[in-house]
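Title: Prediction job returns without error message
Component: structure pipeline
Severity: low
Priority: P3
Assignee: unassigned

Description:
Job completed but the reporter wants confirmation the result is attached to the right record. Sequence as submitted:
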Amino acid sequence: MQASDFDQNMALRREGDGALLWRSAKEGFGLCGSDALFEEGYCRLTEAERAYIRPVNDGEAWFGEQPSGIRAQFETDSLRIDVRVRLAGPFDMTNMTQTGQCGMDLYVYDEEMGDYVLHEVARYPFPDREYTVPLLHFTERKMRRYLLYFPLYRAVERCEIGLEPSASLRPISCAPLRIGIYGTSITQGCSASRPGMAYTNILSRRLGCEVLNFGFSGVAFMEREMAELLGERKLDLLIVDTEPNAGVDERLRDRAEDFLRAFLAGSPTTRVLLFSRVLFALDRYDGARRELCAFYRDFLRKLCTRMRRSGAAVYFADGGRIFPGNYTEYTADGVHPSDAGMIAIANTYQREIARVMGKISK
């Protein structure tokens, strides 16, 4: 026996009956969240960028192939929306759900709530690398707006979306405001239960803008080469939250200013928001870890003050204030945020973005 024998909400979603018209997600579905989508696959860094960064940080090149933060945004009156996906590998993480690492989730705009709301999640048999899953449950035909989020931690080799052959389809264009976030596994979305709960995706829905996710799990070490690549992006704001990786030793101290100046050399009008890290459950009984966290909080604050005095629009935000109260309850494994932690991060980021950019409305 298994749980789905008693609770149908735990059953796998099977491919529906009836013919569908299948299109690549790149054909009319309004993809956004990456500047590399003109190439094969659904990567966050182009092939040339991955080749450029690989000699100094092979991890950033590898994670740059994974589509965290990429989404399709479109309108359709189809009564069927299925996805057909081929992954570069199977689900294999120990601190993340299968739907978070490898699945997709579909949001629909709810007129009564005035917001996008979760509609369905792509659940599929373990440990398959390919899946076809139905995601829609409407019976009334009308044009609706949808967001379809891509997996957080597994490269996608192929993604097709199936609609009824007679259905209308219109892409929704990306918003002009663009925010890039360079960070660690927390930014990439580790331990979010599903893609839409990664804090970068929460922010993009709330702010109605394009948020480009440059989270690279365990390897966000602030190389000058990465700063140069980010400086080539047309961003209105760059958020840097790399202390959980670069701040475990002297790299954050030694590289932060050079990283920021290299980025601003390529993108001099972009504002920068520099975060110190969130508190971890692991901090509670580790005095050395707490001392290092306090050192970098002071270091980053002073760095931002010094750079602003030289004319750079660089601002500091204290990530240690993100998790209120019992901060140990906001993670899935002592380090990586649960969905509650992701919401808390999005709340603070939203306030800090408003502070440095002015009020942003949808």
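Comment from assignee: result matches the submitted record. The chain has a mean pLDDT of 94.
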